[in-house]
Amino acid sequence: xxxxxxxxxxxxxxxxxxxxxxxxxxxxxxxxxxxxxxxxxxxxxxxxxxxxxxxxxxxxxxxxxxxxxxxxxxxxxxxxxxxxxxxxxxxxxxxxxxxxxxxxxxxxxxxxxxxxxxxxxxxxxxxxxxxxxxxxxxxxxxxxxxxxxxxxxxxxxxxxxxxxxxxxxxxxxxxxxxxxxxxxxxxxxxxxxxxxxxxxxxxxxxxxxxxxxxxxxxxxxxxxxxxxxxxxxxxxxxxxxxxxxxxxxxxxxxxxxxxxxxxxxxxxxxxxxxxxxxxxxxxxxxxxxxxxxxxxxxxxxxxxxxxxxxxxxxxxxxxxxxxxxxxxxxxxxxxxxxxxxxxxxxxxxxxxxxx
Length: 355
Description:
Elements: E1 2-7, E2 27-28, E3 31-32, H1 33-43, E4 48-53, H2 58-65, E5 74-79, H3 86-92, H4 94-97, E6 102-106, E7 109-111, H5 116-124, E8 129-135, E9 143-147, E10 153-158, E11 167-175, H6 178-184, H7 196-205, E12 210-214, E13 219-221, H8 225-239, E14 243-244, E15 247-248, E16 253-255, E17 258-260, E18 265-267, E19 270-272, E20 275-277, E21 282-284, E22 287-288, E23 292-294, E24 299-301, E25 304-310, E26 315-317, E27 322-327, E28 332-334, E29 346-347, E30 352-354
Parallel strand pairs: 1-4, 1-6, 4-5, 8-12, 14-17, 15-18, 16-19, 17-20, 18-21, 19-22, 20-23, 21-24, 22-25, 23-25, 24-26, 25-27, 26-28, 27-29, 28-30
Antiparallel strand pairs: 2-3, 6-11, 7-13, 8-11, 9-10
């Protein structure tokens, strides 16, 4: 079995950050989202993966994933000139996928559990497609699946006003090669895109078996700032342990599950976990509150931050309170003096904000 990881698209909902950074490389708990995807593929025993990339961001994606040796996976890069739908991405990768079964994994999705057991169930079944599903409170915002009593998908509905179930489609699918013929049979939707839901519906309409894998653990789509911060909170809460590899001086307090990476320094500060502080970062005369990820070589001085994601080589200085914020790489947030109250910001790479 192969995998197809989608790491293209424009990431418009995370702009301005994604003007200069592929959304799949934005870090959650200081690891790019693509890293979690690759870990799941490695755990499932998949050794060949095609990665769909956009012309604008392919170099950064290649720079992070390389040839895949960090995960024991052989990576082939496939350029999708324009994001014309998930089914179009499969069509673009058709020569690479050839006659193999494959997992399609959207590179901006995070699953609380891996995919190993689902892959085994698919291989033991006679299904041509397996869809990952998650129960949600308001299914009207998602593609929704209707199942029969045996767990087979009988109908897919995109963002229905009256949902047939509360099972939303998650960004992970497993296909047999039969999907290629189904994609050939569909036409672009009103959005001008080839929809994977239309191709799956075509499979069902032609009598092929489509099954559902209902997730017990969490699923997070990191498309928007608040979703991204929620993902960071969830991952920190679940995976952070207490590990101090950097330097913490005697005037500082570290409470709870805090990871201070090698080369990082904490001076006259309080860190209250769960928090991760990246390599070479410096926290001085500051408070870093729960659910914060501080990137490599970032400096926080004379400030209070909580529930934030701050990417690498940024600087936060003299800020009374920064919360619920996403700060890009090489960015600066500085307060000369006089301001009271908290800030909520989302700023892109190489930005400067003086307040």
